[in-house]
Prior knowledge:
Elements: H1 2-25, E1 27-30, E2 36-39, E3 50-51, H2 88-104, E4 114-118, E5 125-129, E6 140-145, H3 152-159, E7 162-167, E8 176-179, E9 182-185, E10 188-189, E11 194-197, E12 211-214, H4 216-222, E13 230-235, H5 241-251, E14 257-266, H6 276-288, E15 291-302, E16 309-318, H7 320-327
Parallel strand pairs: 6-7, 6-13, 7-9, 10-12, 13-14
Antiparallel strand pairs: 1-2, 2-3, 4-5, 8-9, 11-12, 14-16, 15-16
Helix pairs in contact: 2-6, 5-6
InterPro entries: Methyltranfer_dom, METTL24
Protein name: Methyltransferase domain-containing protein
Amino acid sequence: xxxxxxMFWVCxxxxxxxxxxxxxxxxxxxxxxxxxxxxxxxxxxxxEGTRNAVxxxxxxxxxxxNAVxxxxxxxxxxxSAVxxxxxxxxxxxxxxxLRWLVEKRPVDYKCGKKVRLPNYRSTDSWTYCAxxxxxxxxxxxxxxxxxxxxxxxxxxxxxxxCEVMSYDPSMDTVAHRHSPSVMFQxxxxxxxxxxxFVPHKNNQVKKPTQWQIRTLKTLxxxxxxxERTIDILKFDIETYEWNVTRNMIDSGVLSQVKQLLLxxxxxxxLPRREQFLQLATVIQDLDKIGFRxxxxxxxxxxxxxxxxxxxxxxxxxxxxxxxxxxxx
Length: 328
């Protein structure tokens, strides 16, 4: 019994000495990453390297610096954005909000004179505001995306004295001068620059293909229009408008655009329903940078949740230009 007791005290003494040694030679230091690791103190030249222990704290969350962008950077609208954990009821509530924004909401800029331009090949039309602050007059500049072999809008803008840059990658033709003041290029409007963009199938895309797409900012720079006002920017690009508009807001290129004419699309299968909340922020952010809608025409509306569909032509004016007019 005495021998066992002696061994116990010897072991206890060794444990105490070892503990003092560890306390003296190792201190808890924050690592340069997101963990707290065990490290030798800086002034102890005998100890080198790091002995990592299980972190005492979970990795700190970074302030969204590397978060996935609000809108995706792949071909399908919103496809690579992080899915929101939403119930069906929450998604339906977001759909109601979207429907309000693009169909039900009253106009928030009263345009005194609206000009409607009918298309040659369809019943669709584009309407722009001809108030003094926004009336396109020579030498005006227009960018048009989504021609679909119908140059009626471009021809009308040329007659108004504008230089017109028109684009459509779905038309099987080469770059050419359609008329003296209307240039055409088979290039698409995108949220990024790409030469191998694969569009989803729709009425204009019947089989797999690849397109060349460019952001508006890239095209404006290539055309040496960075210092010019774009009197009208028009596009109808079949659900890609959500990504594209987000890119234009973020890049700041819309500051040089007086009028924005576009068609919002929500099809039963695109964009994904868990992204409806994010779609609404695109429209709301247009409002934040000074754009007010003066015109809307909703069509193709199906409020049934299983087949929810909504398309709306909308016209916006950049009210920052009314402030510039007042300063003159």
